[in-house]
Amino acid sequence: MEFGYGILSAQNPPGSGKTNAGVYQEIVDLVQVAEESDFDAAWTAEHHFMPDGHSPSPLTLCAGLATATETIDIGTCVLLAPFRHPIKLAEDAATVDLLSDGRFNLGIGAGYMEREFDVFDVSMKERAKHVAETIHICREAWTEGPVSHDGDLYQYSDLEVEPKPASENGPPIYLGGTSQQAVDRAAFRGDGFIGNANMGWEPSDAGAGEDGFDHWGDQSNYIAAEHDVDMDDFLVGILNYCYVAETDEEAWETMLPSFLYTRRAYAEHSKDRDPDEFTLENLGEERIERLKENLLVGSPETIVERLREAERGAACDIHMLLRMWQPKLNFEENARSIRLFGEEVIPELS
């Protein structure tokens, strides 16, 4: 099992007392703590037009992290492919790969927030085409010699695209998503898939997942059964919220307000989601109990037990992509969780 530290969205909640510059510096410092604590990767994120400053530029942040670290992988979870020309993306990704000396992972997604598509003048109906052509064009651009493309969305001929990445054949490309169709696309086109752990939502809950994967290993088992994929070389990344403290009670008391904040922030910019559901009063004890059964929040012993359960149920090694950076917490609160995970969880599962 591998462990990724994220999601580095650089959100700065109202009333935090932090400057945006301070938030970005804190992220760099925390990724250095994660590297020292033997995490395998750090992951950035992308959204636009959110009032809390959610990072719109994951590659720029990746470049900064690449130069501030030495061993930890740096990746995007996820970069929104429809909003970038694939040639420019190929150039920028190659640059980050060079800055990191081959430690860069390109996670891409199709996007789902309608306002982003409206502002960037991109049709949501064509987002799958954007992802497909982006993958093809990036891989072609990272090879030697001139490249040409004649697709539905992009056309060019005899382009010399430089620089070439440090990684042979370019960085791996992982596809994000929540549905079975997204898993199918990743298995067909990508080098891996990044999806969500089930957080215990019932179908009637606001923000319920769209997929039918009830357990953390289900995506890997589905891919192994339905697709001709070498599971030793195919990354299955599972996103789950995480916070570690000395006791379960301390972990939940510290982390829950930040969890609710992030869910509200996304709900405010998502179709058919009510942000008012994500308050302590409206969430309700029943849903909170389901969250406590499914999120990776608690003491090191609790976290190890749940991760061992996930490991037993998977068809391959899972990359646990931990939503461990909590925007409402201060540096020391975030750093303590990282260090405790590195000291008492990682050694039990390595």
UniProtKB/TrEMBL annotation:
Enzyme class: oxidoreductase
Keywords: Monooxygenase, Oxidoreductase
Domain Luciferase-like: 1-312
Pfam family, one: Bac_luciferase
EC nos: 1.-.-.-
Domain of life: Archaea
Single annotated GO MF: monooxygenase activity
PANTHER family: BLR5498 PROTEIN (PTHR30137:SF8), LUCIFERASE-LIKE MONOOXYGENASE (PTHR30137)
Protein name according to UniProt: LLM class flavin-dependent oxidoreductase
Organism: Halosolutus amylolyticus
Higher taxonomy: Archaea, Methanobacteriati, Methanobacteriota, Stenosarchaea group, Halobacteria
